[in-house]
Protein backbone atom coordinates (compact mmCIF):
# COMPACT_ATOMS: atom_id res chain seq x y z
CA UNK A 1 0.00 0.00 0.00
CA UNK A 2 2.82 2.35 0.94
CA UNK A 3 4.69 1.58 -2.27
CA UNK A 4 1.56 2.30 -4.27
CA UNK A 5 1.20 5.66 -2.51
CA UNK A 6 4.81 6.56 -3.30
CA UNK A 7 4.37 5.66 -6.97
CA UNK A 8 1.26 7.83 -7.21
CA UNK A 9 3.03 10.72 -5.47
CA UNK A 10 6.11 10.42 -7.70
CA UNK A 11 3.94 10.35 -10.81
CA UNK A 12 2.10 13.41 -9.59
CA UNK A 13 5.37 15.23 -8.95
CA UNK A 14 6.61 14.34 -12.43
CA UNK A 15 3.37 15.60 -13.94
CA UNK A 16 3.69 18.88 -12.07
CA UNK A 17 7.37 19.22 -13.05
CA UNK A 18 6.78 18.64 -16.77
CA UNK A 19 3.71 20.86 -16.70
CA UNK A 20 5.84 23.67 -15.28
CA UNK A 21 8.48 23.09 -17.96
CA UNK A 22 5.78 23.20 -20.64
CA UNK A 23 4.30 26.39 -19.20
CA UNK A 24 7.74 28.01 -19.14
CA UNK A 25 8.41 27.02 -22.76
CA UNK A 26 5.08 28.53 -23.78
CA UNK A 27 6.02 31.66 -21.85
CA UNK A 28 9.36 31.80 -23.67
CA UNK A 29 7.68 31.68 -27.06
CA UNK A 30 4.99 34.26 -26.29
CA UNK A 31 6.44 36.78 -23.82
CA UNK A 32 9.22 39.36 -23.60
CA UNK A 33 8.91 40.31 -27.25
CA UNK A 34 9.86 43.89 -26.39
CA UNK A 35 7.68 45.51 -29.01
CA UNK A 36 4.61 47.74 -29.13
CA UNK A 37 1.47 46.26 -30.61
CA UNK A 38 -0.24 48.16 -33.44
CA UNK A 39 -2.94 49.17 -30.95
CA UNK A 40 -0.37 50.51 -28.49
CA UNK A 41 1.38 52.35 -31.34
CA UNK A 42 -1.89 53.96 -32.41
CA UNK A 43 -2.63 55.07 -28.87
CA UNK A 44 0.88 56.45 -28.41
CA UNK A 45 0.80 58.66 -31.50
CA UNK A 46 -2.83 59.64 -30.99
CA UNK A 47 -1.99 60.96 -27.53
CA UNK A 48 0.72 63.20 -28.97
CA UNK A 49 -1.39 64.03 -32.07
CA UNK A 50 1.41 62.85 -34.35
CA UNK A 51 0.64 61.65 -37.87
CA UNK A 52 2.51 58.43 -38.61
CA UNK A 53 2.89 55.53 -41.04
CA UNK A 54 3.05 51.98 -39.69
CA UNK A 55 4.09 49.64 -42.49
CA UNK A 56 6.38 46.84 -43.69
CA UNK A 57 8.40 46.13 -46.82
CA UNK A 58 9.46 42.68 -48.05
CA UNK A 59 13.10 42.55 -49.12
CA UNK A 60 14.81 39.37 -50.33
CA UNK A 61 12.49 37.22 -48.24
CA UNK A 62 12.79 39.39 -45.12
CA UNK A 63 10.05 41.60 -43.73
CA UNK A 64 11.24 44.99 -42.49
CA UNK A 65 8.71 46.75 -40.29
CA UNK A 66 9.01 50.50 -39.78
CA UNK A 67 7.37 53.61 -38.41
CA UNK A 68 7.60 56.94 -40.25
CA UNK A 69 6.77 60.45 -39.06
CA UNK A 70 7.63 64.01 -40.03
CA UNK A 71 7.95 65.92 -43.30
CA UNK A 72 7.80 63.76 -46.41
CA UNK A 73 10.12 65.97 -48.47
CA UNK A 74 12.76 66.68 -45.81
CA UNK A 75 16.09 65.12 -44.90
CA UNK A 76 15.72 61.76 -43.14
CA UNK A 77 16.72 60.77 -39.64
CA UNK A 78 17.02 56.98 -39.85
CA UNK A 79 16.98 55.25 -36.46
CA UNK A 80 18.44 51.77 -35.79
CA UNK A 81 17.87 50.15 -32.39
CA UNK A 82 20.18 47.99 -30.28
CA UNK A 83 19.87 44.42 -29.02
CA UNK A 84 17.29 43.49 -27.98
CA UNK A 85 14.87 46.20 -29.04
CA UNK A 86 12.53 47.52 -31.69
CA UNK A 87 11.57 50.79 -33.35
CA UNK A 88 9.94 52.04 -30.16
CA UNK A 89 13.37 52.64 -28.61
CA UNK A 90 13.09 55.96 -30.48
CA UNK A 91 9.38 56.63 -30.04
CA UNK A 92 9.92 59.90 -28.16
CA UNK A 93 12.12 61.22 -30.95
CA UNK A 94 9.50 60.33 -33.57
CA UNK A 95 6.92 62.55 -31.87
CA UNK A 96 9.17 65.41 -30.84
CA UNK A 97 7.81 68.70 -32.16
CA UNK A 98 11.24 70.19 -32.95
CA UNK A 99 12.37 67.18 -34.98
CA UNK A 100 8.95 66.87 -36.66
CA UNK A 101 9.21 70.47 -37.85
CA UNK A 102 12.47 69.83 -39.65
CA UNK A 103 12.90 66.17 -40.63
CA UNK A 104 11.38 63.04 -42.03
CA UNK A 105 12.00 60.28 -39.49
CA UNK A 106 12.04 56.50 -39.89
CA UNK A 107 12.65 53.90 -37.19
CA UNK A 108 12.87 50.23 -38.15
CA UNK A 109 12.70 46.85 -36.47
CA UNK A 110 15.95 45.09 -37.31
CA UNK A 111 15.79 41.49 -38.55
CA UNK A 112 14.76 39.18 -35.71
CA UNK A 113 13.07 41.88 -33.62
CA UNK A 114 9.75 43.69 -33.37
CA UNK A 115 7.73 42.70 -36.42
CA UNK A 116 10.71 42.00 -38.71
CA UNK A 117 10.96 38.19 -38.83
CA UNK A 118 10.80 38.09 -35.05
CA UNK A 119 13.01 35.50 -33.40
CA UNK A 120 15.27 34.78 -36.39
CA UNK A 121 18.36 36.93 -36.06
CA UNK A 122 20.97 37.52 -38.75
CA UNK A 123 24.58 38.63 -38.55
CA UNK A 124 25.76 42.21 -39.03
CA UNK A 125 26.54 41.83 -42.72
CA UNK A 126 23.12 40.41 -43.61
CA UNK A 127 21.31 42.99 -41.48
CA UNK A 128 23.22 45.77 -43.20
CA UNK A 129 22.60 44.42 -46.70
CA UNK A 130 18.83 44.23 -46.14
CA UNK A 131 18.60 47.61 -44.39
CA UNK A 132 20.52 49.28 -47.23
CA UNK A 133 18.01 47.91 -49.72
CA UNK A 134 15.22 49.20 -47.48
CA UNK A 135 16.81 52.66 -47.40
CA UNK A 136 17.03 52.75 -51.18
CA UNK A 137 13.39 51.70 -51.59
CA UNK A 138 12.13 54.35 -49.16
CA UNK A 139 14.49 57.18 -50.16
CA UNK A 140 12.98 60.56 -51.01
CA UNK A 141 16.20 61.81 -52.60
CA UNK A 142 17.16 64.03 -49.67
CA UNK A 143 20.13 63.61 -47.27
CA UNK A 144 20.01 60.68 -44.87
CA UNK A 145 21.42 60.70 -41.34
CA UNK A 146 21.88 57.35 -39.61
CA UNK A 147 21.36 57.11 -35.85
CA UNK A 148 22.32 53.85 -34.13
CA UNK A 149 22.41 52.87 -30.47
CA UNK A 150 24.46 50.00 -29.01
CA UNK A 151 24.44 47.19 -31.63
CA UNK A 152 22.67 49.67 -33.89
CA UNK A 153 25.98 51.55 -33.83
CA UNK A 154 28.02 48.98 -35.76
CA UNK A 155 25.01 48.48 -38.04
CA UNK A 156 25.04 52.08 -39.23
CA UNK A 157 28.84 52.16 -39.33
CA UNK A 158 28.86 49.13 -41.63
CA UNK A 159 26.18 50.76 -43.79
CA UNK A 160 28.31 53.87 -44.22
CA UNK A 161 31.44 51.80 -44.85
CA UNK A 162 29.70 49.77 -47.57
CA UNK A 163 27.89 52.73 -49.21
CA UNK A 164 29.77 55.88 -48.11
CA UNK A 165 28.16 58.16 -50.69
CA UNK A 166 24.63 57.34 -49.55
CA UNK A 167 24.73 58.93 -46.10
CA UNK A 168 25.23 62.52 -44.98
CA UNK A 169 26.09 61.67 -41.41
CA UNK A 170 26.36 59.11 -38.62
CA UNK A 171 25.29 59.63 -35.02
CA UNK A 172 26.72 56.72 -33.01
CA UNK A 173 25.10 56.38 -29.60
CA UNK A 174 27.13 54.13 -27.28
CA UNK A 175 28.05 52.02 -30.30
CA UNK A 176 29.91 48.70 -29.89
CA UNK A 177 32.33 48.93 -32.83
CA UNK A 178 35.74 47.97 -31.43
CA UNK A 179 36.20 44.17 -31.74
CA UNK A 180 38.91 44.14 -29.07
CA UNK A 181 36.54 45.73 -26.55
CA UNK A 182 34.04 42.88 -26.90
CA UNK A 183 34.32 40.30 -24.10
CA UNK A 184 34.58 36.62 -25.19
CA UNK A 185 31.24 35.55 -23.61
CA UNK A 186 31.93 31.88 -24.37
CA UNK A 187 28.74 30.90 -22.59
CA UNK A 188 26.58 32.21 -25.43
CA UNK A 189 26.98 29.20 -27.80
CA UNK A 190 25.84 26.90 -25.01
CA UNK A 191 22.41 28.52 -24.85
CA UNK A 192 22.27 28.89 -28.63
CA UNK A 193 22.16 25.11 -29.04
CA UNK A 194 18.96 23.07 -28.95
CA UNK A 195 17.12 22.43 -26.73
CA UNK A 196 18.50 25.12 -24.37
CA UNK A 197 17.78 27.94 -26.83
CA UNK A 198 14.05 27.30 -26.40
CA UNK A 199 14.40 28.21 -22.73
CA UNK A 200 15.52 31.74 -23.63
CA UNK A 201 12.46 34.01 -23.63
CA UNK A 202 11.27 36.28 -26.42
CA UNK A 203 13.64 38.82 -27.91
CA UNK A 204 16.52 37.64 -25.72
CA UNK A 205 17.00 34.62 -28.00
CA UNK A 206 17.80 36.50 -31.24
CA UNK A 207 19.74 39.00 -29.14
CA UNK A 208 21.96 36.24 -27.79
CA UNK A 209 22.54 34.93 -31.31
CA UNK A 210 23.60 38.21 -32.85
CA UNK A 211 25.70 39.28 -29.85
CA UNK A 212 27.72 36.08 -30.25
CA UNK A 213 28.27 36.74 -33.96
CA UNK A 214 29.15 40.40 -33.41
CA UNK A 215 32.84 40.08 -32.49
CA UNK A 216 33.85 38.29 -35.70
CA UNK A 217 31.71 40.71 -37.73
CA UNK A 218 33.53 43.67 -36.18
CA UNK A 219 36.91 42.25 -37.18
CA UNK A 220 35.63 42.02 -40.77
CA UNK A 221 34.34 45.59 -40.55
CA UNK A 222 37.51 47.15 -39.11
CA UNK A 223 39.53 47.48 -42.36
CA UNK A 224 36.53 49.11 -44.06
CA UNK A 225 36.20 51.96 -41.57
CA UNK A 226 38.50 54.15 -43.63
CA UNK A 227 35.81 54.15 -46.35
CA UNK A 228 33.52 56.37 -44.27
CA UNK A 229 33.51 59.94 -45.61
CA UNK A 230 30.39 61.41 -44.00
CA UNK A 231 30.09 63.57 -40.91
CA UNK A 232 30.33 61.55 -37.71
CA UNK A 233 29.12 62.37 -34.22
CA UNK A 234 29.95 59.96 -31.41
CA UNK A 235 27.95 60.22 -28.17
CA UNK A 236 28.97 57.94 -25.33
CA UNK A 237 28.60 57.81 -21.56
CA UNK A 238 31.87 57.75 -19.63
CA UNK A 239 30.55 55.05 -17.26
CA UNK A 240 28.97 52.73 -19.82
CA UNK A 241 29.31 49.25 -18.31
CA UNK A 242 27.85 47.40 -21.32
CA UNK A 243 29.78 49.01 -24.18
CA UNK A 244 33.17 50.33 -22.97
CA UNK A 245 33.97 54.01 -23.43
CA UNK A 246 37.18 52.85 -25.14
CA UNK A 247 35.08 52.51 -28.31
CA UNK A 248 35.36 56.29 -28.61
CA UNK A 249 39.15 56.18 -28.91
CA UNK A 250 38.93 53.31 -31.38
CA UNK A 251 36.59 55.25 -33.65
CA UNK A 252 38.74 58.38 -33.41
CA UNK A 253 41.72 56.38 -34.68
CA UNK A 254 39.93 54.44 -37.40
CA UNK A 255 37.60 57.00 -39.00
CA UNK A 256 40.48 58.78 -40.70
CA UNK A 257 38.48 59.94 -43.73
CA UNK A 258 35.33 61.18 -42.03
CA UNK A 259 34.34 64.61 -43.26
CA UNK A 260 34.13 65.79 -39.68
CA UNK A 261 34.32 63.87 -36.40
CA UNK A 262 32.84 65.17 -33.16
CA UNK A 263 32.81 63.39 -29.80
CA UNK A 264 30.30 64.21 -27.09
CA UNK A 265 31.22 62.49 -23.84
CA UNK A 266 28.43 62.43 -21.27
CA UNK A 267 30.05 62.45 -17.85
CA UNK A 268 29.04 59.54 -15.60
CA UNK A 269 26.32 58.38 -18.00
CA UNK A 270 25.60 54.67 -18.52
CA UNK A 271 24.60 52.76 -21.64
CA UNK A 272 21.04 54.02 -21.85
CA UNK A 273 21.69 57.56 -23.06
CA UNK A 274 18.95 57.66 -25.76
CA UNK A 275 16.45 57.75 -22.89
CA UNK A 276 18.35 59.25 -19.95
CA UNK A 277 19.76 62.10 -22.06
CA UNK A 278 16.97 62.58 -24.54
CA UNK A 279 17.13 66.38 -24.70
CA UNK A 280 20.88 66.53 -25.33
CA UNK A 281 20.65 63.97 -28.12
CA UNK A 282 17.50 65.55 -29.58
CA UNK A 283 19.28 68.90 -29.74
CA UNK A 284 22.26 67.34 -31.54
CA UNK A 285 19.90 65.84 -34.14
CA UNK A 286 18.02 69.11 -34.57
CA UNK A 287 21.25 70.96 -35.32
CA UNK A 288 22.50 68.51 -37.98
CA UNK A 289 21.31 70.92 -40.69
Please tell me about this protein's structure.
- The protein has 2 domains: 1-30; 35-286, 3-Layer(aba) Sandwich (Rossmann fold), CATH 3.40.50.
- The protein has helices at residues 2-30, 38-47, 91-94, 97-100, 124-138, 152-162, 188-192, 204-221, 246-254, 273-276, 278-286; strands at residues 53-59, 62-70, 76-80, 104-108, 144-149, 169-173, 231-237, 260-266.
- The longest helix has 29 residues, at 2-30.
- It is globular, with a radius of gyration of 21 Å.
- An 8-stranded mixed beta sheet has the order 1-2-4-3-5-6-7-8.
- Helix content is 41%, strand content 18%.
- The chain is of the alpha/beta class and 289 residues long.
- Helix 6 (152-162) links the parallel strand 5 (144-149) and strand 6.
- It has 11 helices and 8 strands.
- Helix 5 (124-138) crosses helix 6.
Mean pLDDT score, rounded? 89
Overall, the morphology is globular
Order of helices and strands: HHEEEHHEHEHEHHEHEHH
Output the number of helix runs. 11
Strand content: 15-25%
What level of helicity do the residues show?
Answer: 40-55%
Low-confidence stretches: 16-30
Biggest β-sheet strands, sense, barrel: 8 strands, mixed
CATH topology of the largest domain: Rossmann fold
Helix-strand blueprint:
Layout lengths: L1 H29 L7 H10 L5 E7 L2 E9 L5 E5 L10 H4 L2 H4 L3 E5 L15 H15 L5 E6 L2 H11 L6 E5 L14 H5 L11 H18 L9 E7 L8 H9 L5 E7 L6 H4 L1 H9 L3
Helix pairs in contact: 5-6
